[in-house]
Amino acid sequence: MLLVESQPHNYIDPALNDTLLILPTSVESQCNWNWTINDRKVKTKAEVNRMLIVPPNVQSIWEVDAHRTLLTLCIPNSTFRSVLGTNCPRQLGQALWDLSADTWEDEYLSTAMRQLWLSSQSHEPIDAIMNEGLVTSIIACLMKKAGVHSGEHQPVAFPEWRVRKLHTFVQQQLAEDISLDDMADATGLSRRQFSRAFSAQMGETPFRWLNRLRIERAMVMLKESDVALYRIADECGFSDQSHFSKAFKQTVGVTPAVWRLEHRSS
Predict the structure, then answer these.
(1) Residues 264/221, Cβ–Cβ less than 8 Å
(2) Average pLDDT over all residues of the chain
(3) Packing angle between helix 241-252 and helix 206-224, nearest 10 degrees?
(4) Over the stretch 165-190, which tens digit does the pLDDT of each residue have?
(5) Per-residue pLDDT tens for 117-149?
(6) CA 98/CA 174 separation, integer angstroms
(7) Where are the beta strands (DSSP E) in the chain?
(8) Residues 60, 141: Cα–Cα separation, whole Å
(9) How confident is the model at residue 150 (pLDDT cuts 50, 70, 90)?
(10) CA 253, CA 208: separation in Å to the nearest integer?
């Protein structure tokens, strides 16, 4: 984040892999602020608190004829992805394109920008935590202002901590009948949110993943014990030995009995 004293100038900014959020905090009277982004030309008067956004990966040409003081926040694409997870638009520049058509006012964003600047000057750990929260809020506000919404059309983010929480729950309950609602509850998501987010993040359905964990537990028991197949089926959460044998063969390619024999003799 930068606080820039900007004099009259004409210059070209190269394309950056970042989004620039610009907040004028002071403006000389009758300051003309003109820019060109991807051949779209905009002419306006610079005003305090009227913000501007420059999307990533675009060259911009600027013409300014008076003094301004600007708070400029540079947000890398990686930060958008980290904050938004699977809610992050694939074409971030396109999602923010309409916001770059003109300057605009937003009381929340201008307040958050000023607070971020103040707290970023401190070296206290609590201020670092505050800064993370402010950046998250700014990004979420920009997405909402740009008309990018999660829910019906985009999956809820399924970060690593949710994966670990779900894995722990399933390992503890593997012998039980685990439903989709049970897994969703374990991660703090609704059934619909969980199903979409899990598949987007993990590349497979929740039940396919659960079946794989059951098979992996069964393989350990087959190799390291003499427990009967019907007991292994029960302890790994299969409804009966027949169900276990069918699921095992579909996944591994051979029946549990054959797999045990092959791995005991190796």
Answers:
(1) no
(2) 87
(3) 100
(4) 999 999 999 999 999 999 999 988 88
(5) 998 888 888 888 888 899 999 999 999 888 876
(6) 49
(7) 2-6, 9-13, 18-27, 32-37, 40-45, 50-54, 60-64, 68-76, 104-105
(8) 24
(9) low
(10) 16
Q: What end-to-end distance do the CA atoms of the chain give, in Å?
A: 62
pLDDT at position 123 is 80
Distance CA 261, CA 266 (A): 9
Alpha-carbon Rg for the chain, nearest whole angstrom, is 27
42: tokens are 């905009």
Cα separation, 18 vs 74, in Å, equals 6
DSSP class per residue in 63-80? EE-S-EEEEEEEEEHHHH
Structure tokens at 85: 């997870």
Q: Do residues 78 and 92 touch, judged by C-beta distance below 8 A?
A: no
Instruction: Look at residues 71, 56, 75 and name the one whose alpha carbon lies nearest to residue 2.
Output: 71
Amino acid at residue number 75: I
Instruction: Determine phi and psi for 59, rounding to 5 degrees.
Output: -80, 145
**Tens-place pLDDT, residues 16-27:** 889 999 999 999
Report residue 256 as tokens: 């549990």
